[in-house]
Request: fold
Amino acid sequence: MSTQSSSLKRPVRPENPYAMWRQICQVSESLAVSGDLPSNRVQALEQLRLWEAAGITDVFDMREEANDTEFICKNSTVNGHWFGVDDDGGKRDDAWFQILCDAARVILNDTTRPRRILVHCHMGVNRGPSALFAIMLATGWGSLDALRAIRDARPISGIIYAPDAINWWAREQGHDSDVVADMVDEVEAWLDRNPLDLYYVIRSIGNRRAI
Reply:
């Protein structure tokens, strides 16, 4: 565990969430998180070029309400993957975590060339960061180290589905119910110690986003 990371004071209201909306936030050498492509296709192509320049080879889209996979594959060297789910604040299904983590492990275990995954939803606040957290668990990260890395790289990450992700992962590893509960409690306690004003973040982006 990094002493610097564990002692970092994270802002409850990060400065200018809108500016961070589509910023590529590198969490590790092979994993990044961001917001979605602009609806304007000219701007979307410009964003795609930035993804390519950053070495992104695969994009995981977590939006139920939209799917840019075909556009990405037709207009770039990046591979698009869609795992759409609603951002309704409810419990995330085990199958959602399983399928996206299985896909991520196949990609990251590719020995033919370096692969880099960018995970996104609409604003890059809840679904994307939570899916990235699950991928990190499934590729060897400890839960608290993963949470720190995501929030440090992208301060607007709510990661609200992280308790569901660790619940799935702990059971996937065969832990008994007491251990599973302890692991979930540890994640929930970290989120409580590191609060984020989600209403402020979402409002800040929503009030200024491009139509």
Observations:
- The CA atoms of residues 129 and 159 lie 5 Å apart.
